[in-house]
Amino acid sequence: MAKSEKPRRYVVGVYICLILLIGANLSGCSKPQPVTEEISAVRTQIVEENFYSINSNYSGEVRGRYESQLAFQVNGKIIKRNVDLGSVVKPGDVLMQIEPKDIQQTLNINSAQVNSAESQVALAGSNLARYKQLYEQNAISRAQYDQYQTAYDTAVADRNKALAQYAQSANQMDYSSLYADSPGVISGINAEINQVVSAGQSIITLVKDGALEVEISIPENRIEEVRNVQQVYVTFWALPNVMVDGKVREISPMADKISRTYKVRISLPDAPQSIKLGMTANVTITDPNNKKALYIPVTAIYQTQDQPYIWVVNNDIVNLSPITIGTIGDGKVQVVEGLQAGAVIVTSGVHKLREGQRVRIAGDVL
């Protein structure tokens, strides 16, 4: 039994070897499959030189042209607040009050000093009158009379000093109330009841009645553009059907320390009543240098580090071409160098292409 199994295993092993050899020969004789070149469909544009006004858009906030930062002129603890955010006030309205106890005590002290000074003046005047009679009767010398005259003059001066101190303390009492200096709207409150504030500390922001403005921030490379702007129009997020002509009134001479942008105030000469303080606005500035040039879509730019490129199509082959760009806005880029009118460029899918790749034009955006 063992002898018959051995030849059988040998025959099976031979068959396996033959099958492996045949498979190896067949695989070695198979022909390689041809590689199909990938042809991408791209959208292109024929570059033309024309006039195109690039607009820059900046978000901003509606502000009042005149804003006052109101503050107390004395130190103290706030005991009363008569206004809230959005309150409409008139000149002379009391906005806040601070504790006047210490000021009242100072006023009482100065009042007592005035009374004492008045008494000294009365006494010195009485003495002067008596010694004047004695001097006229040659009962005393001129030097003695001059002493009483000097005493009277000193008493009068002390009284004037006491009166001035009393007036000053009376003013301090009046300063314990914070008044509105003009008609307007309260747009900011920086202190609350029981808070101790110091003299000169900004407490309330009062937007005075009058012209409205929009404040925007611009980068430093757009200052000249904004300075020479010819047309500005403003729209509002909360008022989609309202568009107002604006005018650049003021450009900050110094950049913000944090954002490194410059504050710009856009006046609204014909602002309707529906525009309110604090509304979000969009300011559109038209490029003042509207001249004939080459403009391409932003989507056509292929950026590598700091150098922008475009894909130029020649005979269905794409090649990278470096360019120098100018102004940017409204989805358009001005090309200053590196591109000629009439060239065909790729306008979409630029990051999926490679140098020398064959493409198929799917359509032109003219």
From TrEMBL:
GO terms for cellular component: efflux pump complex. Residues 214-287 form the CusB-like beta-barrel domain. Pfam families: Beta-barrel_RND_2, YknX_C. InterPro entries: Beta-barrel_RND_2 (IPR058792), RND_pump_MFP (IPR006143), YknX-like_C (IPR058637). It comes from the Bacteria. Gene3D superfamilies: 2.40.30.170, 2.40.420.20, 2.40.50.100, Helix hairpin bin. GO terms for molecular function: efflux transmembrane transporter activity. Residues 294-360 form the YknX-like C-terminal permuted SH3-like domain. Belongs to the membrane fusion protein (MFP) (TC 8.A.1) family. This is Probable Co/Zn/Cd efflux system membrane fusion protein. It comes from Sporomusa ovata.
